[in-house]
Design a protein that fits this description.
about 600 residues, alpha+beta, five-stranded antiparallel β-sheet, five-stranded mixed β-sheet, 17 helices, 12 strands
């Protein structure tokens, strides 16, 4: 069944046959009244005149008495067809070609021509041709050439008008159906958004309560040590946190002239030196202290995991942020080492990995097994299932796939939160990534009435990165732009080179985001107030994932927006090999 025929079968709020017949009834009533009054239109043939009135009455009775909605809509044209023939009889009985009642032809003619189906064009044209040609045939003598030409020319004009009316009515029906479907979808999405918003508010309250509890525990058991040294690593600053973490007072450390290396695990220092040995460093010779400050001497802060060793031999797992220590003139005079006790954090990470592993093996494996056995049951030729059983099996299979996707989403959210992404680094043509994303989004844009524009340069613009992850980031931005852009708007996705950087920009003419909320967009579960007011669906994870992917590639996410005008989000990537991720999740652990 074609789309047009499918639309024609949808129920719409169309007037009944009797309502459509009312103008014709009124027209015939006026004609009868004019013919009855003195000095009115003369009745030249009473039989034909009364036959026309009677036929119009029959058509009107049929329009009221017959339940046309129970029949196929093509049958309803019987009523205007009879009315059109009644006009022809009325015209023959009141002066034939000179009858002023020929104007009544328009009322049933428009009804027939506006009905769905191209066949109605032919019915309207042929019936009108009969009505207009009847006087010429029945009263053939004494007709002028002008009347003959008019009798044949007028039906042609009516045919053209019927085509125009039928096409306009056809397009109006399509627009009406589209509007009804859109309204239904909007109501459904609004209801879903309200439900999701209620659940989100409840979950957010629970999350805040849990975060406050964790923060209180964390503040109570976590301390930081701050150790300052000169350019050679001799300690001259020792805060109370370092005193409690390493078990020595400030006086003991300064009097003994301890070096910061004294509190590090020598095996880790040796391993770091071996890693540095084969590559360029900022000093001419590598010493133990360079293992801690080589990156800082190059001009960047360094955050690295180390192990502190207390004088009693106890080891403390720490994360140390090393930064330069500057004087009032901006000259480097030493280094600052801020160490955070990571003992509990690493325990939390271990528990989290165990939880992710539990999800992967305890849920994913049985779900895969369930899907496999469902497929075996469906394809078992020895014991074929009935149609009803196959229907039940399809429901079970569909819900099992849904659970598997939910497990995948949970795993992927854990990856985003921990910042651990497996990157398959290779040369990536950003133009191809953007083109693929735009083509995937075109059906969604078409349904939303949004113009999707792609501006990709002819020459390839390549970076080093992961094609799948970068495509995922662009897909998220394009999807958000389409959701935030009303019908009639435009979303433009462009790629350009900017110095030693490549820029992918997604710009829309949507509802925009308030300026005070731009800094919060990358937070998990955060949704802009404009999204809430306009019932835009979503849970607030898209930009979080996108920013994590871009950051993992050594890039940044730039956001500019004006409420009521639109939003522009740019992915800025370095045209060089991104820094490798230190920890990667095995391919088998990836979320689908």
């Amino acid at each position: 069944m074609t789309f047009d025929r499918w639309l024609s079968r949808l129920p719409i709020d169309s007037p009944s046959a009797f309502m459509k017949q009312i103008p014709t009834i009124i027209g015939f009533a006026i004609a009868a009244l004019i013919a009855a009054v003195p000095n009115g239109v003369p009745v030249t043939d009473v039989t034909e005149f009364l036959a026309g009135i009677a036929l119009a009455a029959v058509a009107s009775i049929l329009s009221f008495a017959v339940p046309w909605r129970r029949f196929h809509q093509e049958w309803a044209v019987i009523v205007p067809t009879l009315s059109l023939l009644a006009v022809g009889l009325l015209r023959l009985g009141t002066g034939s070609s000179a009858s002023p009642f020929v104007v009544l032809t328009l009322l049933p003619f428009v009804w027939i021509a506006s009905e769905e189906g191209r066949i109605n064009i032919l019915i309207a044209a042929l019936t009108t041709f009969v009505v207009l040609l009847a006087p010429l045939v029945l009263d053939g003598d004494g007709r002028t050439s002008g009347e003959i030409v008019r009798a044949f020319f007028s039906p042609v004009i009516y045919l053209i008008v019927a085509i125009v009316i039928n096409e306009l009515a056809h397009r109006m029906r399509i627009q009406l159906h589209s509007a009804q479907e859109s309204n239904a979808k909007q109501e459904m999405l609004l209801a879903q958004a309200v439900t999701a918003q209620d659940e989100l508010v409840l979950n957010e309250a629970r999350l805040k309560t849990a975060n406050r509890l964790i923060q209180s525990i964390w503040n109570a058991v976590t301390e930081q040590s701050v150790i300052g040294t000169d350019l050679d690593g001799l300690i001259d600053v020792w805060n109370p946190g370092a005193e409690k973490m390493l078990g020595l007072t400030e006086k003991q450390v300064l009097d003994a002239k301890h070096h910061v290396i004294d509190f590090h695990l020598h095996e880790e220092i040796d391993q770091r030196l071996r890693d540095m040995d084969a590559r360029f460093t900022t000093v001419s010779s590598i010493d133990d202290f360079s293992a801690l400050v080589d990156t800082v001497r190059a001009g960047s802060a360094d955050v690295r995991d180390w192990t502190y060793v207390r004088p009693d031999g106890k080891r403390v797992a720490v994360q140390v942020a090393a930064t330069p220590r500057l004087d009032e003139n901006g000259h480097r005079v030493g280094f600052i080492f801020v160490a955070t006790d990571m003992t509990q954090a690493r325990e939390f990470a271990r528990l989290k990995d165990e939880f992710v592993g539990l999800i992967s093996h305890e849920l994913r494996t049985p779900l895969s097994s369930i899907l496999g056995y469902l497929e075996l049951m469906r394809d078992d030729e020895d014991a074929p299932l009935s149609d009803e059983q196959l229907q039940y099996l399809a429901v079970a299979e569909r819900n099992a796939h849904r659970l598997l996707r939910l497990v995948g989403d949970l795993l992927f959210t854990a990856q985003v939160e921990s910042g651990r992404f497996p990157l398959d680094i290779k040369d990536v043509d950003l133009g191809g990534v953007v083109s693929a994303s735009v083509e995937s989004a075109r059906p969604v844009a078409g349904n939303a009435g949004v113009t999707l524009v792609s501006d990709v340069p002819e020459l390839p613009l390549e970076v080093r990165g992961d094609t799948v992850r970068l495509g995922q980031a662009v897909d998220n931005l394009v999807s958000n732009a389409l959701k935030f852009t009303p019908s009639g708007g435009t979303v433009t996705v462009s790629v350009r080179s900017q110095g030693d950087q490549a820029v992918i920009a997604v710009t829309d003419t949507g509802i925009g985001i308030p300026a005070v909320e731009l800094s919060q967009l990358s937070q998990r579960f955060f949704r802009a107030s404009t999204a809430t007011r306009n019932a835009v669906p979503g849970v607030g994870l898209g930009l979080t994932i996108t920013k994590a992917i871009v950051t993992a590639h050594g890039g940044r996410l730039d956001i500019a927006s004006e409420e009521g005008v639109g939003t522009s989000i740019s992915i800025v990537l370095p045209v060089r090999t991104p820094r490798p991720v230190t920890e990667a999740i095995p391919t088998a652990e990836l979320a689908p």
